[in-house]
Amino acid sequence: MTAPPEQIPTPRLLLRRLHQSDVDEVHQAVTAALPHLRPWMPWAEAEYTRETATTWLTFVHQSWQSHTAYSYAITHKNHLIGATALERRIGPGGLEIGYWLHPDQVGTGYATEAAAALVQAAFSLPDIEFVQIWHDLANVRSGAVPKRLGFAEVARHEPPREPLSPGEVGVDVVWQLDRPVG
Fold first, then answer.
1. Domain span at residue 82?
2. Could you count the other beta carbons within 10 Å of the beta carbon of residue 31?
3. 76 inside domain
4. In the chain, how many domains are there?
């Protein structure tokens, strides 16, 4: 199975494969962003320790090796400002994009820029026919990203597939972009 590139440059960012050596930077970024992430991310409920970051980076490495997910640091001027991933969790032929940014970076267009780069990376893989982005209906900022990139809303799921976070209303909105023809 083919994997996407380990580094993806964009006009303002570098998406790079996460490694165990990123543990301190991941720990620091997530810890600083927890109040911003808690309303939307079930994993952000508890304290985010260095051990939690280490465990997550081990999972990230294993996921890359097994071709189930490809996680990237979103970096700006060599600083980790968030994370994003392509995940094989929506069935054959598809990849799902997920993302989060440090709250100081929200509203900059970085999430859209990172997602656009991942769309290109996804469609560089021969087995990928569509890309999806899922978010809770209440997470308006996350929903703006697929809208800007030309995704079409294809479904709403109630109840949601994951446990609710405090800011969520329990409706998963699913956006999809199909591989361009030709």
1. 7-133
2. 14
3. yes
4. 1
pTM (two decimals):
0.96
Give the tens place of pLDDT for each residue, 131-154.
999 999 999 999 999 999 999 999
Tell me the CATH number at 113.
3.40.630.30
**What percent of the chain lies above the pLDDT cut of 90?**
95
Domain-embedded: residue 109? yes
How many CB atoms neighbour CB 136 within 10 A?
A: 21
